[in-house]
Every structure is written in C-alpha cells, then in structure tokens.
Amino acid sequence: MNKVKVVFWSGTGNTEAMANAVASGIKSAGGEAELIPFETVSVSDVSGDSVIAFGCPAMGAEVLEEGSVEPFMMDYENKCSGKKIALFGSYGWGDGQWMRDWQDRLTAGGATILGGEGVIANNAPDDDVISKCEDLGRALAQA
Ligand SMILES: Cc1cc2nc3c(=O)[nH]c(=O)nc-3n(C[C@H](O)[C@H](O)[C@H](O)COP(=O)(O)O)c2cc1C
C-alpha cells in the first residue's frame, strides 16, 4: 500500500488535531501516513499522488489560508483530475462556506472528494469529528 500524504495548515492546532486523527485512521487500516505542513510542500511534490488528504481552517472571510494554502490550490486545482481527495478543516463563526467552495474548486478540476464532502469541526474537533476524521483516514487507505 502506498504512503498517503496528509498535507495541512493549522494556526492554533484545531486542524492539526484533525490531521492527526486522519493519520491514525490511515494507520488503523494498515496504511502508512505522512503528515506534511503546507508550508513545506509544492504541487510537484504531490503530482504523483492519486490519493491524498488536505486540511485547512476557514481564514480571511471564508477563504483558505492565503500565505501557502491558496497559492498551492490555485495551481493544484488545474492538476487534480482523476485524484481522490479527502478534505478537512476547522472553522469558527461561519457556516462552512470555505469548505463548500474548496470542494467545488477541486470537483470542477475533475477530482473526487472522498466521503462526498469535507469533514469540518467547529473550533476544536469533538469526539464525533475525530471519529469522522479516522473514518476518512480508513477510506484513504482503502481508496
Ligand atoms: C485571521 C482569521 C480569520 C478567520 N476567518 C474565519 C472565517 O471566515 N470563518 C470562520 O468560520 N472562521 C474563521 N476563523 C476562525 C478559524 O477558522 C478557527 O479559529 C479555526 O478553529 C482555526 O483552526 P486552526 O486551529 O487549525 O488554525 C478565522 C480565524 C482567524 C485567525
């Protein structure tokens, strides 16, 4: 089984906790997980990965983090055709619009969103969200 990359950005640790749960789900299904901060990855590093996970909280006004995640996605959304992608992230006061927009961009680029939609947590992930993230990890390992 291939190693599954879990690429994430997190300012205060909420999305990072979700990334850790996705990684433990991958491992529980017998896969290998590699946690990678967005700041350290380029689109060419992941161009060969047909199954991958991305995590980013809602930032700005319902947008992706603008320093590293948005520039990455502007390029990646044109190169994601045929890929199976898991999305996750935390939000605060909104209603998840940033995640719907993110899903739509990747779907428009030809990707399939694992589970049909991203897993979102209001602030710190509770037990229910952690368990959804672990399920996402298992789906990644088996995709
Ligand atoms: C600069 C900034 C902008 C934010 N913008 C939004 C937003 O548009 N909508 C929302 O629901 N939450 C917003 N939030 C709240 C974060 O998404 C929330 O605190 C989240 O848990 C942070 O995840 P993290 O711990 O992984 O960084 C914002 C937070 C910051 C610091």
What does this structure look like?
The protein has 143 residues and is an alpha/beta fold. The protein is built from 4 helices and 6 strands, in the order βαββαβαββα. It has one domain: Flavodoxin domain (Rossmann fold). Strand 3, helix 2 (69-76) and strand 4 form a beta-alpha-beta unit. The N and C termini lie close together (10 Å). Strands 1, 2, 3, 4, 5 and 6 form a 6-stranded parallel sheet that branches. Helix 1 (14-28) crosses helix 4. The model has no long low-confidence stretch (mean pLDDT 97). Flavin mononucleotide is lined by residues 10-16, 57-62, 90-94, 123. Flavin mononucleotide binds next to helix 1 and strand 4.
What's the alpha carbon Rg, rounded to whole Å? 13 Å
Q: Beta fraction of the residues?
A: 15-25%
Treating each run of at least 4 consecutive H or I residues as one helix, how many helices? 4
Structural class: alpha/beta
Shape type: globular
